[in-house]
Amino acid sequence: MHATKITRRDPAQRKRDTLRRLGAERDIWLSTAHPDHGPHQLPLWFLWDGQAVWMCTGANSATARNIREEPRVRLALPDTFDVVLLQGEAECRPAPDVPKEAADAFTAKFGWDPRTAETPYVYVRVAPRTVRAWHGEPELRGRVVMRDGVWLA
């Protein structure tokens, strides 16, 4: 392993990079917790609609059950160097309650429509309240780029 030179980004650049990744990436790690059964984490496909993350999971999955009991969640893009972490409250929505634009965009991105699946799925929507983004130790200071649902840059 070799060291990588890190150029510290200003807050505006961190926000731009974060938004670019949210718009382009396919997978996100979703962490939920159940009051009795503890933490649960899994990767899911996701869509960023400019304000919220949309994912799908089985209507009767541990993830959906956890969200119904404890809606506070964490999300992470899968890169340990270019870190993007989101926190917010998740809501499970059955297909008929999902805005057509979001469901159609999810289908267009992945070529799969949960609305037509044989087993029931729910869409999980998370509007982030906090976003942290950093490249290595030099960017730990100032890593919060969204607080209380408002971008800081």
Automatic annotation (TrEMBL):
Q: Gene3D superfamilies in the record, alphabetically?
A: Electron Transport, Fmn-binding Protein, Chain A
UniProt keyword list:
Oxidoreductase
Q: Which Pfam families match?
A: PNPOx_N
The Pyridoxamine 5'-phosphate oxidase N-terminal domain, residue ranges: 28-135
InterPro entries for this protein: F420H2_bilvrd_red/Heme_oxyg (IPR052019), Pyridox_Oxase_N (IPR011576), Split_barrel_FMN-bd (IPR012349)
Q: What is this protein called?
A: Pyridoxamine 5'-phosphate oxidase family protein
Question: What's the source species for this entry?
Answer: Streptomyces huasconensis
